[in-house]
Amino acid sequence: MNKKQIGGLVIAVILFIMVGVSSVLTHAFSNRILMDSMEELWRDGAGFNPPLNDYIAVVRVQGTIQEQTTTGMFEVPVGYQHITTMEYIDDLMNDDNNQGILLYVDSPGGTVYESEELYLKLKEYKERTDRPVWDYMAHYAASGGYMISMASDKIYANPNTTTGSIGVIMSGYDMSGLYEKLGIRYISITSGENKDSSKMTEEQIAIYQGQVDEYYNKFVSIVSEGRGMTEEEVKALADGRVYTANQALNNGLIDEISLYEDMTMAMCSELGVYEFYEPETELDFFTSLFARIESVIPKSEAQILKETAADMESGVPMYYAEQLR
């Protein structure tokens, strides 16, 4: 190889490195710009801009009640947004024009932590403002979705609502058989025999059952207070089963069966306020757009495994109603 060829090769290598570095920096920079733009959009897309006159605020709880979640490479908000909802209720407490809350529930429940936190926030709203909370149950208002409804002064349900499911579930998967079949050896070094529950012992089952029972008793107490029933009366209904709207009405779990439009008119008439407000959001279009883009991007095996593990909610105590699929 002569000097001219060597020189050309060196120049080619340098150019290749420069192009590669430039590509990486450009990709990182463009990603940062995209994420900054998305974050600004999320902030600006759902601001608190209530009317300057008296109004009733609509608080929507739709989907699984859990910690604030985003999904995918675009960090798009999905489902129920816990922090946003809690902050929204705080804003309502500080606004004298707000005259009450219409709590719209379409949820099969969720985690113990977020369900009870939202329930307590609604109770705080009532105690601090002395304003009413009316509840409307849509498709589902079960388990944690039913718990948060206990903060309401009146509970209306759609004729086809599924509600109830007063109880707690904590579930997980025993993967030992699969590991053995795949030739994977699981090793765990612990400081105590109950630190690792990957192979559940009878003692560990009893430990977790104690936690579930504690959360269950708390749930029963909340329903007892919310519905003016004794705890014995609640427990007779609280074996985890779901109820239709008619069954719930007959058992004293709700107040009325109604279409949404009729319920809103009844609330307006009683409060003497005829304007409803909920924060506007500009995210629907972008959420749909980015979800479509992301759906065509192949997922790695690691991504699939991570998402599967997250969906399992392994070991997390839940006020949640399992749905038939």
Describe this entry's structure for a reader:
By secondary structure, the protein is of the alpha/beta class. The chain has two domains: 1-41; 52-320, 2-enoyl-CoA Hydratase, Chain A, domain 1 (Alpha-Beta Complex), CATH 3.90.226. The protein contains eleven helices and twelve strands. It has helices at 3-45, 82-93, 112-129, 144-149, 176-182, 202-227, 231-237, 245-250, 260-271, 283-295, 301-312, and strands spanning 55-62, 70-71, 76-77, 98-107, 109-111, 133-142, 154-157, 162-164, 242-244, 256-257, 276-277, 318-320. Strands 1, 4, 6, 7, 8, 9, 10 and 11 form an eight-stranded mixed sheet that branches. Strands 2-3 form a two-stranded antiparallel sheet. Helix 2 packs parallel to helix 3 (112-129) and helix 6 packs across helix 7.
Q: Quick one: CATH superfamily of the largest domain?
A: 2-enoyl-CoA Hydratase, Chain A, domain 1
State Rg: 26 Å
Low-confidence stretches: 24-31, 37-45, 304-309
Number of helices: 11
CATH class of the largest domain: Alpha Beta
CATH topology heading of the largest domain: 2-enoyl-CoA Hydratase, Chain A, domain 1
| Shape, per Cα inertia axes | globular
**Strand percent estimate:** 15-25%
Structural class given helices, strands, pairing?
A: alpha/beta
Give the mean pLDDT.
Answer: 82
Tally of distinct domains: 2
> What does the main sheet amount to?
8 strands, mixed
Distance between the termini: 69 Å
Order of helices and strands: HEEEHEEHEHEEHHHEHEHEHHE
- Second CATH tier, the architecture of the largest domain: Alpha-Beta Complex
Helix amount, in percent?
A: 40-55%
